[in-house]
Amino acid sequence: MRVELVLGIDVACRAAHQASLARPDGTFVWTGRKFFTRPAELEALWAALGLAEGDTVRVVLEPTRNAWAPLASWLRRRGAKVSMVPTTQSADLRAYYSKHTKNDHLDSKLLARLPLLHPEGLREHTSNGPAEPLRRIVKIRSSIVKRRTAVFQRLDAQLELLGPAWYDALGSNYGKAALAVLARYADPTSLLRLGQARLTRFLIRHSRGAWRDDHARALLTAAKQSIELWGTDPGTGIDFAELAADIAVEAEQAQVLTEQIDDLDERIANLYAEADPTGIVASAPGVGPVTSAVITGRIGDPHRFTSLAAIRAYSGLVPKVAQSGQSLHQHGLTKAGDPLLREALFAAADAARRTDPQLAAKYARLMATERHHDSAICHIATTLLTRIATCWRTGQHYVLRDTDGRQITEAEGRQIVRDHHQVDHRTRANAASKRQSQRLKNRTGREQKESQSAPASRPANTKSTNPSAA
């Protein structure tokens, strides 16, 4: 008789893992076995299972950081079925299953009995998670972009000390030429000593000919205005040399981060071409090279999800549901899925509604109900994800259609959206204002005050509520 044993593993990052083995009826063969992710110890763990011919084993574990990935890979190669359990799900079951404090021994026993306690929560996991290069590299790129954005914000604050003319000359996107100028010539006096001819050659070299005499003149004008604003008296002015040194530090960091992003973009393009050779994800409107790689990398295999609803739930863009009897309330987003995927889908949906008439019509209907712009875009994002996943699972490219189902080109789609599905700025502003007022009215508790000891707007009730005081 074939038996499917359940091996619950509480994964640790630095300490030893804990494992418990349960029979199909929930009784334990053994519990609390400690081991590390080393080949010899894994071989001993596998031998301890005592599998007879025809027996199978299901491994249930939580995705603890990245420590689970090599463990799951080794067990899958031995023929085990690996099921991943969300940490929130196991925590809720642990609270119900036990009334005492958490310990690793209990965790492994709980995971081993999870198929009996909550079989619907088990999903066989077949990918390598963080060991997959595309999934990992898009996350790295996102973190570096955010770090560079923080550097740009600090540069903005420092250039404010030099005056607004520097913004006009350098622009707000801080390209390679702008960063080269800030790294070497952020001191207005040194920039003026450089002169227009040498500055023009410097700009031509670092901008590949895009910046020439006009940008050089604008920078020299900005330097002169900075000196006029602060003066030349060292006692009352600003130390331009020290400020330039601080700006150079930030600019050099931005240069390094920009080079890393360029290298990552090249690697991402190659990995995406391998993962989606026909460009199905990239065929969707609003999905560019980076966004298509993020969606592909973070979702992985679309067939690992049991349904399209499961893919939407994984994005975290579905509403929370509170249901009791005939009462059903939906409020807020679960945000329980992948945050990077959710971020990419939101940006793609905001761009797609400008090209796809069907998405634009849905956006207009949502905004007509005084819905906030972000809420409407989240609805568009779930629709876009459903369509991308459908195309992906069926191996077909995204087809752009009008509201009547007629196939159209992207140029035709943008024109149709401009002519028939535009939402004016006043509608968006009114919707945002009304929702803000509604949120303020729904607040409960004492009135807003500058401090807890501030006097109330109405007299306090000084009448005693103690009957014995009467």
UniProtKB/TrEMBL annotation:
Query: The Transposase IS116/IS110/IS902 C-terminal domain covers which part of the protein?
Result: 281-363
Q: Does the keyword rRNA processing apply?
A: no
Biological process (GO) annotations held by this record are:
DNA transposition
Entry-linked InterPro entries: Transp_IS110-like_N, Transpos_IS110, Transposase_20
Query: What Gene Ontology molecular function terms does this protein carry?
Result: DNA binding; transposase activity
Q: Compositionally biased, Polar residues: which spans? A: 451-470
Q: Where are the transmembrane segments?
A: none
By its UniProt entry, which Pfam families does this protein fall under?
A: DEDD_Tnp_IS110 (PF01548), Transposase_20 (PF02371)
This protein's UniProt keywords: Coiled coil
At the top level of its lineage, which domain of life is listed? Answer: Bacteria
Positions of region (Disordered): 422-470
Q: Where is the Transposase IS110-like N-terminal domain?
A: 7-163
User: Which residue spans adopt a coiled-coil conformation according to this UniProt entry?
Assistant: 247-274
Q: Spell out the protein name for this chain.
A: IS110 family transposase
Organism, per UniProt?
Kribbella sindirgiensis
